[in-house]
Amino acid sequence: MTRISDVAKHAGVSVATVSRVLVGQGSVSEATRERVLASVKALDYHPDLAARRLRSGKTDTLGLIVSDIRNPYFTEVSRAIEDVAYARGMRVLLCNADEDPAKERFYLDMMRDENVAGVILSPTLSLLNQYRAEDFSFPLVLVDRCDAKTEADAVVLDNIDAAQRLTRHLLERNCRRIAFFYGAASATGSQRLAGYQAALAEAGLSAITQPVKPTTDDARQALSTYLERHRQTPDAVVASSGLILLGLVEGLRQHGLRYPQDVIVAGFDDMPWTRIVTPDITVMAQPTADIGRTAIELLLARIAQPGQAMRRIVMRGELIVRGSSAA
After folding, report:
1. CA of 237: how far to CAs of 177, 180, 184, 252, 266, in Å?
2. Count of C-beta atoms within a 10 Å radius of residue 37
3. Backbone angles phi and psi of 138, in degrees to 5
4. CA distance 5 to 207
5. Mean pLDDT confidence for 312-323
6. Cα(248)–Cα(215) distance, rounded to whole angstroms?
7. I need a labelling partner for 210 at 20 to 30 A (CA). Which of 16, 53, 298, 314 fits?
8. Looking at the whole model, is its pTM more than 0.85?
9. pLDDT beyond 90 at 129
10. Computed from CA positions of residues 161, 165, 166, 168, in that sequence, does the dihedral angle turn out positive or negative?
11. Residue-wise pLDDT tens digits, 232-254
């Protein structure tokens, strides 16, 4: 049976260094970490995790609570988090809150009972509005959703800037009636709404807004209702998320409307289907892999140094112009 001392000898480092690499704590160079992990793989070393937890009183499990696992954005973020956790010899307990505050609270309580080392959370608007760091017994990092006033480690997109740039692109395409369909149940949707409204205000135009549940079915129905109530088709429809965007495209086709000939289409999230439909869809892409990796690195840093200052990492979206907003 391979022991940790065997790994240390094979990698040419101390047992303490191997231990630091496996638990993801302490100062270890990237070259040393890669050498240790290569030795772990070569020797097929499997640490006695249960014994380690008993000795240290700590767990090697991280919690991840996402608001909707059906959303490809969270799927990609979760994958990046799991990749880093696996490389550090840690486990991820994944839960889906379904945008439900009660379900979210249930899973947060479960994380406490499981004594996880820390949690990455995409919070509901309800939790965010009453967030207090002292309410949680474990380190916590917020991902995707965070208010300016929230005192928590967080990794978010610059939603206001992203929505402004996406809306300005449509204004440059001579769109004047731009309908914005947004998820009203999250801080992300509200921030993107604010960016859209700011861009229209700059142009001296009125906003056309429609709050929806962030699902494909609800977005499709909301678009149908809008088109039935208004005689004039908007110049453009914009979605605040990928699932809403898919619902808008389905709804336009159901009503026999073509894009970009009859109406321009754009939205958030560079999901695979947006690249293969004809015409392909203009999107504001998010750096999902970077968001996931940064979130878990923030959490591991918080676990290692609980007293360090709060950190908020704000990332920039990439506007990808495609056929759905062609001139």
Report:
1. 9, 6, 17, 10, 7
2. 18
3. -135, 160
4. 66
5. 96
6. 10
7. 314
8. no
9. no
10. positive
11. 899 999 999 999 999 999 999 99
Q: 282-285 and 318-320: which strand pairing?
A: antiparallel
Predicted pLDDT at 142: 96
Q: How many Å apart are CA 216 and CA 253, to the nearest integer?
A: 14
Contacts of 128-135 with C-beta under 8 Å, sequence gap 24+, read: 128/187
Q: How many helices (H) and strands (E) does the chain have?
A: 13, 12
Highest mean pLDDT (candidates 150-154, 194-198, 224-228) = 194-198
Q: Can you list the domains of the chain with their CATH numbers?
A: 4-47 (1.10.260.40), 56-157+288-317 (3.40.50.2300), 159-286+319-325 (3.40.50.2300)
Average pLDDT, whole number, for the chain? 91
- In this model, does residue 324 exceed pLDDT 60? yes
Judge whether 146 and 133 are in contact, CB under 8 Å: no
Q: pLDDT at residue 14 above 50?
A: yes
| Nearest of 293, 225, 282, 224 to residue 253 by alpha carbon | 224
Q: Which residue has the tokens 């004594």?
A: 115
Q: Hey, what amino acid is at 152?
A: A
Structure confidence at residue 195 (pLDDT): 97
The Cα–Cα gap between 49 and 11 comes to 21
Virtual torsion, Cα 241, 242, 248, 254, nearest 10 deg: -160
What is the rounded distance in angstroms from the CA atom of residue 275 to the CA atom of residue 112?
Answer: 41
> CA angle at residue 192 from 132 to 285, to 5 degrees?
105
The angle, 0 to 180 degrees and rounded to 10, between the axes of the packed helices 187-202 and 159-172 is 40
- Tell me the average pLDDT across 139-168: 93
Task: Summarize the confidence of residues 51-72 as an average pLDDT.
Answer: 76
Q: How far is CA 124 from the centre of its chain?
A: 13
φ, ψ (nearest 5 deg) of residue 274? -70, -20
Those residues whose C-beta lies under 8 Å from the C-beta of residue 73, and which sit 6 or more positions away, are 144, 241, 242, 269, 286, 288
